Amino acid sequence: ICMKWGTRYGPEYVNKIYGMVMRNTNRPTRLTCFTDDTTGIRPEVNCLPLPEIELRDDIAWTPWRKLALWQKDLGGLSGDVLFLDLDLIITGNIDCFFDFNPGKYCVIENWTQMGQNIGNTSAFRFPVGKYTHIYDELKTRQDEIVKKYVIEQIYISREIDEMYFWPAEWCVSFKHSLLPKWPMNFFKVAKLRPENRVIAFTGKPDPDEAAIGVWPVKSPIKKIYKHVLPTPWINEHWRE
Q1: Residue 35 near residue 14 (C-beta atoms within 8 A)
Q2: pLDDT mean for each 10 residues of the chain (240 residues)
Q3: Of 45, 86, 115, 239, whose Cβ has the fewest other Cβ atoms within 10 Å?
Q4: For residue 179, which of 222, 216, 234, 220 has the smallest C-alpha distance?
Q5: Radius of gyration for the chain, computed over Cα atoms and rounded to the nearest angstrom
Q6: Exposure string (b/e) for 14-29, b if CB count within 10 Å is 16 or more?
Q7: pTM of the entire structure?
């Protein structure tokens, strides 16, 4: 499953997720996209309205909206579902994501908070309707929860009953795992490893930017170290 709202990510992101999923599974698979605009999304994608959730204006269209997925009824879906952010690339077979600790909440260990037991929700799997308290408690204690945790993935990590991290080599960050450290990022291209299956692009650059070697930054100081060379393997995988 995936979610698309607003205008930052166009329908081509959903279409590429669909293409990457279908090229990297050997099992009957369906992609469901929860969205407020189906325009341009290929017909093979099962599009459903965004799940309802009442959020404060300041967080209404942030990753907190992902918590709508934790309610009991999720568009008629059941069993384990794998959530994928739109701005990631699938580079290897993903069938193992459904074989790993079935029936449990499985997620990436956040690359910038290693050892702190915090999941990164760029790619996570959960059984629909099992952990409804994540959704229900947010409805009744929203101000308290947002103030305490600030970020939705920290809230989930602290309040979920069970959490299992994917094997580290399956899900990596383009920026934190693959991009050479400064100053080598000016001279070496980010290297994809055969064991990598999902590449997450948190923050900037986005996949299309990294593919052509663009890291949009306004600060002159940040331009000194935020640099990416054109990365050909991105477009080899990131396509419909």
Answers
A1: yes
A2: 96 98 97 98 98 96 97 96 98 98 98 96 97 96 97 97 97 97 97 97 95 94 95 97
A3: 115
A4: 234
A5: 18
A6: bbbbbbbbeebeeeee
A7: 0.96
